[in-house]
Amino acid sequence: MEKLIDEWGPEKILQVYDPRTKMRGILVIDNTVLGPGKGGIRMMPTVSVEEIFRLARTMTWKCALAELPFGGAKSGIIADPKKISKEEKINLIKAFAIALRPLSPSQYIAAPDINTGEEEMAAYAIANGSLMSCTGKPANMCVIPGEKCGIPHEYGATGYGVFQAIRVAAEFMGVDLKKATIAISGFGNVGSSLAKYISEMGAKLVAVSDSSGCIFNSYGLDYEKLRRVKEEMKSVIRYEPGEVLKSEEIFELNVDILVPASISDVINEKNVDNVKARLIVEAANIPITYESERILHERGVLVIPDIIANAGGVISSYAEYIGENPQKMLEMVEERITRNVKLIIERAKEENVMPRNVALEIAQERIKKKMKNKFYF
User: Fold this and answer.
1) What is the structure's pLDDT at 5?
2) Closest by Cα among 30, 321, 343, 364 to 157
3) Contact 239/229 with Cβ under 8 angstroms?
């Protein structure tokens, strides 16, 4: 555990177990200088303390960059949703919410993440005993009738924010989005909503992948048809016409823009040399290893890091937290993502450094400024 500790955190690492449901959960509260720790609950069989810590640290930087009164946190439940019933899944969430009552919502505010959504957030809030204990709740779930109601992540805030990041970065590079080819790794809530925005503005989506494989068509994929295929047949590879590839082959396609929108570390030292995209926008959390990001930067590839690009989700959470409506939320996402991506790109160019290094420097400056006014025992 000691190797995880530095000047920024983590403040708390908690592992919980419920013998009745066999729930095994992890919570990492990384840094609460700016406010209570904010971060989603992911449910996967591979969840570990190290992974949750890395994600919590990402949230620390993300919230600071988005100028939100939240700190960084993350949590996870060790389980495979594919091997349990819907009822068992909800019971795990409830047990987790009860176990975290001493810290949530005072020090930790939950949200959806991989394999959790608005239904799980509703269960979490009720079991926890506070509707302020999580965001991403159903739209009809209100603290006061008509006030501070839920804004489900199904509104696509993260995908919308990633789209804004792509738009700003493409303009900076002189890339005409209506002529660009784009590949998205992952077709969950983020990837599917991003595909919708991309298609609506006329860009050519040529490849999409999920856990079953990748569908590629150089002439472009129809979003509505792709959405129906995924919903009805459970995988994008059933889309026709198109060439079916392995999931990991999407990272090596000759496209203008690549968007990793699934799990962590998908671009790494094993495949980074085969990446051909000119622009990579990180819709997932930590989808590229730091060393691989450095290699891409040295090759002239512009990488917009996760802590800027996918902040739409936490900005949406903040909008819900203060009682804004979905329209106002989307306006907040567009304004903050656009401003921050421009700031980071321009400063990175001036200083000739990786955009991530600039983003981290800005985030750390904001936290240090706040730390001067906070007394620790």
Assistant:
1) 85
2) 321
3) yes
- Given a contact cutoff of 8 angstroms between Cβ atoms, the answer to whether 1 and 53 are in contact is no
Amino acid of residue 150: G
Closest CA to 319 of 305, 340, 336, 304: 336
| Residues 247 and 121 reside in one and the same domain | no
Residue 260, helix vs strand vs coil: strand
Residue pointed to by tokens 């304004």: 335
Q: Take residue 339 and report the two structure tokens written for it.
A: 């401003």
Asked if residue 164 and residue 135 are part of one domain, the reply reads no
The whole-model pTM stands at 0.88
3-state secondary structure of 114: coil
CATH of the domain at 121: 3.40.50.10860
Domain interval for residue 240: 157-312+340-361
Closest CA to 309 of 281, 286, 329: 281
Please answer whether residues 284 and 311 qualify as being in contact, where contact means their C-beta atoms are separated by less than 8 angstroms: no
H helices present in 100-145, as ranges: 118-128
257 backbone φψ class: left, alpha, beta (φ>0; ψ -120 to 50): beta
Q: Compute the distance between CA of residue 133 and CA of residue 127 in angstroms, rounded to an integer.
A: 10
Q: pLDDT value at position 4? A: 73
Strand partners, 71: 37
Query: What's the CA gap between 163 and 309, in Å, rounded?
Result: 9
Instruction: Band the pLDDT of 373: cuts 50, 70, 90.
Output: low
Average pLDDT, the chain: 93
- Looking up tokens 């700190």 gives 71
Do you know the residue count of the chain? 377
The encoded tokens of residue 43 equal: 């449910």
The 10 Å Cβ neighbour count of residue 241 is 8
Q: Which helix (H) or strand (E) holds 226?
A: helix 223-233
Active site residues: 74
